[in-house]
Amino acid sequence: MKDTFLVHIVLPDFFSQKFYSLIPKQRILINDLLEKRIVLNYSLDMERKNLWVQIQAISEQEVMDILSTFPIIKEVKVNIHELAFSDNAPLHLPELILN
After folding, report:
1. What DSSP letter does each residue of 30-64 carry, written as one string?
2. What does the DSSP 8-state code read for residue 86?
């Protein structure tokens, strides 16, 4: 059974040209992982200093394996926290009106 992990990624104080060039590749990968429901949530603070990523995985090692594919991984600091639970607001589809 998969558990949920919260990954706190601390971004560099100064974004180099190299770091900026990695962002489009990072977004493509994240979008793919979101679609596959490996990444459940991906959030950036307004100061662009911290990213939080919720990942579903079997173990912390699997989380590290996933993180190793992130284009930005060599430029950031990472802390991994296994969550006891993670509640989310239910997603509702709009009511169908059959006229």
Report:
1. HHHHHHTTSEEEEEE-TTS-EEEEEEEESSHHHHH
2. -
Go through the domains of the chain in sequence order and give each one's CATH number: 3-82 (3.30.70.1060)
DSSP state of 76: S
Quick one: pLDDT at residue 16? 96
What pTM value is reported for the model?
0.87
Residues in the chain, total: 99
Whether the CB-CB separation of 40 and 54 falls below 8 Å is answered with: yes
Classified as helix, coil or strand, 90 is coil
Give the pLDDT mean for 34-62: 97
Mean pLDDT of the chain: 94
List C-alpha distances in Å: 37 to 20, 40, 65: 26, 6, 16
Contacts (Cβ under 8 Å, ≥6 apart) of 42 = 30, 34, 51, 52, 53, 54
